[in-house]
Amino acid sequence: MRKALAPAALLAVTALAVTGCTDNNPSEGSANGAINVVSTADSCQVATQSAPGGTLTFNVKNDGSEVTEFYLLAEDGLRIVGEVENIGPGLTRDLVVSAPEGKYFTACKPGMVGDGIRADFTVTAAPEGQQVNADRAKLQQEATDLYAAYVKDQTEQLVRGTEEFAKAFSAGDEQQARALYPAVRMHWERIEPVAESFGDLDPILDAREADLEEGQEFTGWHRAEKDLWAPADYTKMTQAERTAVAEQMVKNTHELYTRTQELEYTADKLANGAKELLDEVATGKVTGEEETFSHTDLWDFQANLEGARIAFEDLRPLLAESNAELERTLEKNFASLQQQLDAYRKGDGFVFYDELTKQQVQELAAGVDALSEPLSKLTAAVVK
After folding, report:
1. What is the CATH number of domain 19-124?
2. What is the pTM of this model?
């Protein structure tokens, strides 16, 4: 779970796109039509407050001293339409999204904490000629229909698995709860950009203790994780406390399922979501920060990789038509990273993260980077 921005509800299978290093002047757009954004410690300068509907590119430069993020939020301020994360000081990255006519908010998030520095943003009617041709429109619809069915299946399995886990956890059956924990969480991790788009549910279901802000209650999966793999100085929860945590997890997971049934998906969101899943691996799983107590990070790694692969496969007919070379590169790099991860399988799962050597972690990180770079080009290729 990344540190939450603000709630989000639509899909936001989140947006991330092409990486680059270019000069930015926030007072004007770049030569390729991108909207320049400059983020500093206390400002978020967006070159314009409006743009015509269609495919939008935000060219985001970090002029601050901390890592920053940039978001495009829907009119309710909750739904994440697109985002680009982990922009280091001095770096520039692009966010590519498809946005229909309507009111939005832009937001920079220096330090990756809080609700971000926001401003109104308006998308006007799309100019004539922006519509995709009928054949590509059909391929895009087929891709999003397939992905919607995948999300439905994963959330259904997440609900059933959470109920089973909650029953064991509440009853104090720690052996069963430990066995279920990484397997059930894989359903969440496979669709993590979708789950995280609901900013009110994500923190109470998946917030890590280290990421809690002042006054925020520690609940959900990682609260249960800490109790099941308790540190030496930790006082275990009472049965009543375990039951309360378990019941809340079930209730909120049911709510997640209900909300996901109302989502609408677009090709750019699938592509951006695939890239974000790799970013999740890079910033949490391959570092061992996600599962601090259980060390089941490689289960999460596998699920994130599977989720990204599904989105890629659903979009593959579009990609084959527009960029066959990129399609081949992604196929090769997905297979290569999967092969690396397979080396750490053990029984029905994986070895625990704390059993990996420093060199093994570095090799996995290099594999993630090798896939992440071409995957960042997927959005631009499928929204043409």
Report:
1. 2.60.40.420
2. 0.75
